[in-house]
Amino acid sequence: MTAQHAPRVVLGVGGGIAAYKICELLRRLTESGHSVRVVPTRDALRFVGEPTWAALSGQPVATDVWQSVHEVPHVRLGQEADLVFVAPATADLLARAAHGLADDLLTNTLLTARCPVVFAPAMHTEMWEHPATRHNVAVLRSRGAIVLEPASGRLTGADTGKGRLPEPAELFDVARRVLARGSLTADLAGRHVVVSAGGTREALDPVRFLGNRSTGMQGYALAATAVARGARVTLVSANVSLPAPAGAEVRPVTSARELREAVLAAAADADAVVMAAAVADFRPDTVAAEKIKKTGGRPAPITLVENPDILAELSRDRAREGQVVVGFAAETDHVLEHGRDKLRRKGCDLLVVNQVGDGMAFGTPDNQAVVLGPDGLAVEIPRGPKEDLADRVWDLVAERLGEPGRHR
Known about the structure:
alpha/beta; Rossmann fold; 2 domains; 13 helices; phosphopantothenate--cysteine ligase activity; EC 6.3.2.5; EC 4.1.1.36; Coenzyme A biosynthesis bifunctional protein CoaBC; metal-binding
């Protein structure tokens, strides 16, 4: 992508019922200044007609290799694009792309593209989980394509399950992030990363809990940027009210022990684990079966017991060779001093240390931090959007994933 032209996007539309949602994605792309050429498959035009795509994009719709032959569309579209975004990507379209077929204009474009390529799958759950589809997805990811995880929810007819196309606003956010990174987008392609986000809650009674002020914004930014860099992302989310990042698999939890169980399970085949969640250090020894009432006097003391140290456990018992473990430390004073001590105690590869309180970090759209490493690394990340900090963290993780012969 250069400064001389508006970002050029090829929007490939597959033949699925979710094609109607892509009209909204197209509108968001064009209204934000992108030049979009829509390339629908023959079956996609059964759901949304050519005049609709032309009216919304303001450009002629490319439908087959025999149209405007003198412009060589089957080569030019891919060569000149800054991004190829395919949605909905049906099981058939994923199969044809994985096998390098070129039987229509869209698959020809995929073969000639030298820019980031994103697939947003949409299909019934059984089709998504079929070994053939899983194999095709793995092949595409191994080649550097970004294949998003589909959402869960209502499918065609009365069916529900995994396979739903993420909402257009979420897809637009992926496209925006991918275009912002350009050719560096897929440096996490083929990797599985686990991110924890939010703040755990420890029940006192059926109504009250011990918690913290974390909103999950930084963890969600880490998940979204990892998706845009090609990773398969598992997001363990503790009490977060944010919309799920498109392409990430979200596993909701409540307490520290639930978070531990979910993170350890997801980490079994993960290349990297980033513990951005604010995990409670303690929990009540007992949980009242009924709401605790006022007695008119001093309340009974609450006995606390220590929660498991998830970050230390992940660092000590690596699930696989070369796994990178990243921790977060939210401090209110003596930030670097406490951060270095925590890094030593936890044994992780990187520790992201940031100051919290007085309107900083929790609940704000921006953040600043210092990333520490056991080798004396100290990378300052100035205050800016949380997605910028997330990208810098993934830069450091990608460097360590790329180190030959990493071992514990």
